[in-house]
Design goal:
about 220 residues; five-stranded antiparallel β-sheet; four-stranded mixed β-sheet; 3 helices; disordered N terminus; about 30% helix; elongated; 11 strands
Length: about 220
Amino acid sequence: MAGAILIFGKKAPFFWFSIPENLRIITEPGHLSFHEEFSKPSTKDKIIRYAFSIGLIVLIVKFVSDGLQYNDSDTFLPFVGQLSFLPASLLLFLLIGFNWRRRIKLITFDFNKNEIKLEPMKFSFLGTKSATISSPFNVNIQRNTREKQHTSSDGDGYGDRWTTYHEGYEVMVNLEKLGYQSVMFLETDNLKQDYGDLINKFVTFAGIDDPLLGIDEN
């Protein structure tokens, strides 16, 4: 899951990795990127998404059709027709946003520009966050427990709230003027087994000391 840290009113890159087997690593000259592939949606999830999308499309077509009919009339109704395109546009944006919500996001270490970025793999101009890395680059890993807040609804406006606790490790990077900040949370009880490849890429790619040395996972 993705999150962010507030820095001077802006959101700094941060990503929560929770499924080790879905971790993917991309290496390019001067770039080191990590992302997590989505697990396949269940049949129920697909039905809900398709039904919601079809419902939005039907409403969009209706508003557009009504608007065109009003525009063809000889009375004041063309003005009403123009207003019909407004909800159609809003629904269109909602439809696009609903189907883009699961875009794969990359957390990228750009050593050419000395930046760390969180950006979607596609349509990266939407929602990209970045921060400057202090030199020399280094990684500090600390064990931590993070919380997640959950809510459920029974359909009548009432529901339960509960908190879950997740063990893992913070990947800390020294950001310019901010010191060490967490840019990734690796949810696991066995760091070396589940995310050893990720850490090894940092060591070999950036030429730093192994941050796993001295970490006690017991």
